[in-house]
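Annex B. Sample input.
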Amino acid sequence: MDIVELRKKYPQYDDLSDGALAYGFYQTNYTDMPMGEFADKVKLSSEGFKQMITTAKEKGRNVTSSSTTKDGPGNQAITGFNQQDQSFVNPDMETMSMK
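Annex B, continued. Sample output.
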């Protein structure tokens, strides 16, 4: 079911952003799946995913860049979103460039 179908099925949540709606559905039914994978599954836009991350943080979830749902040393906290290349960025990291 994609985000459009979710909106049709649950019109009582029309006041929520796509990201907030997706996060609520994710939190209720899909926490065993990485958040990004779920966002892809429901065809959430880049802006919608950014809203989903913001909602998750507001709800106290520690959002990471890892593709796993388990905590561990590879889970880097997501602190920003780079719209140009649609990747998550950590402003504390040095920029890497190809030479």
